[in-house]
Design a protein that fits this description.
With 220 residues, the chain is α/β, with parallel strands linked by helices. The chain has helices at residues 15-26, 33-42, 46-55, 63-74, 92-104, 119-128, 168-182, 184-191, 204-216; strands spanning 3-8, 30-32, 82-86, 109-116, 129-132, 139-141, 160-161, 195-199. The chain contains nine helices and eight strands. Bound molecules: adenosine-5'-diphosphate (ADP) (2 copies).
């Protein structure tokens, strides 16, 4: 059976940071809907132009195009054994669509790890986040996870920049959008006995360990 693991959490809870580490531990791809959108924006595709209008305002991209984009990514050969899903699903219709999609691939969601971080900590994380311009978008934090050379990615040497939607005006709105549209997934997955809560305020390696043991317990 393939292993599909959903990482759920507010913007900046640490989903992407953890998914990158877990990808290497478990050998499953890291599929991040935000990265897929930013890649489309970089290449100026039609989807990229559409998505940008929503992302810049801190709104969610409509479910239909988001689901189609993730379906396409999940149907690629490297996702046949499973994947870490980061930032998808973000609404109840997306979660329902995901159930259908994975059933097509002979799988299902194994576990939903809800990475919990209080609001005041989230805002510190959002405002200090810098990401690299390389294809893999490695993530740093000015205080909590600084690069070895200021302004440069440790892994590929590309320049670091701050995402437009991480700037102060959009931040608070993204947290509100999470509470309204994404928080209902906590109930959705609790009802299906798939939700595991992870304390996301611990240092990065401690969060990884908590996730690793929760995930290992569910693997086939
Ligand atoms: P973060 O990691 O900070 O939560 P993401 O990179 O996941 O941010 O997402 C950035 C933006 O991309 C979101 O604010 C939203 O506009 C859009 N987006 C990402 N994933 C989804 C999704 N599943 N549904 C709708 N919009 C999404
Ligand atoms: P998400 O993908 O959930 O939006 P990220 O993984 O991009 O979150 O993390 C947001 C910011 O917080 C980044 O700058 C990252 O370096 C930092 N960060 C992630 N996990 C931790 C942690 N456990 N402690 C301190 N800072 C963290």
């Amino acid at each position: 059976m393939p292993n599909y693991i959903v990482l759920l959490g507010c913007p900046s809870a640490g989903k992407g940071t953890q998914a990158e580490i877990l990808r290497d531990i478990f050998g499953l791809p890291h599929i991040a809907s935000g990265d897929l959108f930013r890649d489309n924006i970089k290449h100026e595709t039609r989807l990229g132009r559409l998505a940008k209008q929503y992302i810049d305002k801190g709104e969610l991209v409509p479910d239909g195009v988001t689901i189609d984009m993730v379906r396409e990514r999940l149907s690629q050969p490297d996702a046949k054994a499973g994947a870490f899903l980061d930032g998808f699903p973000r609404t109840v219709p997306q979660a329902e669509a995901l159930d259908g999609l994975l059933a097509e691939f002979g799988g299902r969601v194994n576990i939903v790890a809800y990475i919990q971080v209080r609001n005041e900590v989230l805002l510190q994380r959002l405002s200090g986040r810098w990401v690299c311009r390389g294809a893999e978008e490695h993530t740093y934090h000015l205080l909590f996870h600084p690069p070895r050379v200021p302004g440069k990615c440790d892994v590929d040497g590309t320049e670091l920049y701050q995402r437009d939607d991480d700037k102060a005006e959009v931040q608070a709105h993204r947290i509100q959008v999470f509470l309204k549209k994404t928080a209902p997934l906590i109930e959705y997955y609790t009802a299906r006995q798939l939700l595991v809560e992870i304390d996301g305020e611990q240092p990065i390696p401690a969060v990884t360990e908590a996730l690793r043991s929760a995930i290992e317990a569910t693997m086939g």
